[in-house]
Amino acid sequence: MNHTPPGTLFVVATPIGHRADASQRMISTLQQVSLIAAEDTRHSQPLLSHYDITTPLCSLHEHNEHSQSQQLVDKLLKGESIAVISDAGTPGISDPGQVLVQLAHQHHIPVSPIPGANAAISLMSVTGFKNGRFLFIGFLPTKTQERATLLKELKEEPYTLLFYEAPHRIKETLSTLCDVFGEDRSIVIGRELTKLFEEVHSTTLGEAIIWVSDNPNRRKGEYVLAVEAYQVDQRTLDETRHDKLITELLSKLSLSDAVKLAVNITGEKKNFLYDRALRLATP
């Protein structure tokens, strides 16, 4: 904090389960700011007490975020430094904090991240999926139809999809994922990450519901889900690219010349490209 100006808003990540994951920067920042805005002050107090952090607390949650954020901005503009924390992990990502950060930017207040634990990234690191790209969705809609509609939009995304889910909805969510994405799609399930009863399980969507149902304890705890990216069949992808090329060539050349040039460009077999060209040339 020594190099940050007064009136800075610190977005501070806290452990998602294991207290030893707290960083020294997290501790020192929370000790030195004027005020800590916490999602749930009662939930955060044990962690703060463990590290001898006695900084005053105020609440910042989904029900008071708009009104409280304006009051906090007023304090920041007067030169007070404030830290915002969520119950676990990084604020502003499926947790309160976004409104306050947005207001701070609008008032040209310095905003500084204090990085740390994040459940989605933690699970992503242990999936073993080849495609390192991912799309963070967070919590899905609670209504069945809205959830299914969103998942249908995401079905063919070429990214690993990361979701958060509560234990009382996990079976219903897995069932919808299976219905929309198919039972053979790979999934890695993280339950109670970094906590005493942590589980990381790699399976398919078809087997995931069985795994959750096998143990009553799995209906407890917070879940993170990583669904493998949609796998495009390479042959289908090649055919699409070849058809696009052949269509363009046919607009300028005869069928035989278009095929000959397509063979030279793609290295594909002549008979295959000739068959594609015939189909495309036939009205």
Rg over C-alpha atoms, rounded to the nearest angstrom = 26 Å
CATH topology of the largest domain: Cobalt-precorrin-4 Transmethylase, domain 1
Distance from N terminus to C terminus (CA atoms, Å) equals 70 Å
Strand content: 15-25%
How many structural domains can be distinguished in the coordinates? Answer: 3
User: What is the spatial order of strands in the main beta sheet?
Assistant: 3-2-4-1-5
Chain-averaged pLDDT? 93
**What coarse outline follows from CA principal-axis ratios?**
elongated
The helix-strand sequence is EHEHEHEHEHEHEHEEHEHHH
Low-confidence spans: none
Q: Which CATH architecture of the largest domain is right?
A: 3-Layer(aba) Sandwich
Structural class: alpha/beta
CATH class of the largest domain: Alpha Beta
Characterization of the model:
The model has no long low-confidence stretch (mean pLDDT 93). The protein is built from eleven helices and ten strands. It is α/β, with parallel strands linked by helices. Strand 8 (186-191) and strand 9 (199-204) form a beta hairpin. A five-stranded parallel β-sheet has the order 3-2-4-1-5, sandwiched between helices. The protein has a five-stranded mixed β-sheet with strand order 6-7-10-8-9. Helix 3 (65-77) packs parallel to helix 4 (98-106) and helix 9 packs across helix 10 (255-266). The protein is elongated, with a radius of gyration of 26 Å.
From the structure above, extract its key features.
five-stranded mixed β-sheet; elongated; single chain; Cobalt-precorrin-4 Transmethylase, domain 1; Methyltransferase, Cobalt-precorrin-4 Transmethylase, Domain 2; 11 helices; 3 domains; 283 residues; 10 strands; alpha/beta; five-stranded parallel β-sheet
